[in-house]
Specification:
Layout lengths: L12 E6 L15 H15 L4 E6 L7 H6 L4 H25 L4 E5 L8 E2 L2 H9 L3 E5 L9 H11 L4 E6 L20 E3 H7 L6 H10 L3 E5 L4 H6 L6 E4 L5
Parallel strand pairs: 1-2, 1-6, 2-5, 3-4, 3-5, 6-8, 7-9
Antiparallel strand pairs: 8-9
Length: 247
């Protein structure tokens, strides 16, 4: 390669899905650990330097999970709206950390709250991405009974992302929980149908079906430092979830 030139990234535009738990204190599993958020922001800033356009969806499980709150007695609809608000808190934390890294960022939320975020408007989101800004999609889909996994799949399709990158605490998709079973085997690639049939923990079934119907690949990878850049640079990182015909 000629000195001073950099290789084109593998993907022009992607949607990065982060769980709320990724932001949490490692000991308690709750709250926002600013050091962790800052570390993720640095990775995203490095990825931006490759030229990839990035959208982000962050969960809210480090603050509250709708299903858990519902199981404890809250009305399901109310609990889900509480979970959506938690994603807004995490999105603002991510925005603050990214801007400290010099990355221009916009938060768009499916729930109207104009004092702190833009409303989600697809064309506006696309324009931000084209201008090199990172767009963080908060508030889920704006509807109860849908997870942030489904929100990530929906937003990825709406912004014409080429893949969903799902950052996790493990290296990829396994045939059983690697945190419990030390003999668990990791897949290099796996088909959507197998994910659904075996109940593999990638994303929920609605999100997987949406990706499968539209041929949107999902890459599940460990969020440890350097992996986002490695993945976007074309290295084989994590597990690729796609269709049998390779789409």
């Amino acid at each position: 390669m000629v000195e001073g030139l950099k290789a084109a990234p593998k993907y022009k535009r992607v949607l990065l899905k982060l769980s709320g738990e990724a932001f949490a204190d490692p000991q308690s599993g709750f709250g926002i650990d600013q050091r962790i958020v800052a570390s993720i922001a640095r990775q995203i800033a490095e990825a931006k330097e490759l030229g990839t356009e990035l959208g982000i969806v962050v969960g809210g499980g480090n603050i509250i999970r709708g299903l858990s709150a519902s199981a404890q007695g809250a009305a399901r609809t109310t609990a889900d709206y509480m979970g959506m608000l938690a994603t807004v808190i995490n999105s603002l934390a991510m925005q603050d950390a990214l801007e400290k890294e010099g990355v221009q960022t916009r938060v768009q939320t499916a729930i109207w709250m104009q004092e702190i975020a833009e409303p989600y408007i697809r064309r506006r989101a696309m324009r931000h991405l084209e201008k090199g800004r990172v767009v963080i999609f908060a508030g889920g889909t704006g509807n109860p009974y849908f997870s942030t996994d489904t929100s990530a799949a929906l937003r990825a399709l709406e912004i014409d992302a080429e893949a969903i990158l799902k950052g996790t605490r493990v290296d990829g998709v396994y045939d059983s929980d690697p945190l419990v079973n030390e003999d668990a085997n990791m897949f290099d690639t796996v088909d959507y149908i197998e994910v659904l049939n075996r109940g593999l923990k990638v994303m929920d079934s609605t999100a997987i079906s949406l990706c499968m119907d539209n041929g949107l690949p999902i890459i599940v990878f460990n969020l440890k430092a350097g992996n986002i850049v490695r993945l976007l640079s074309g290295e084989e990182v994590g597990t690729l979830v796609h269709s049998q015909n390779g789409a």
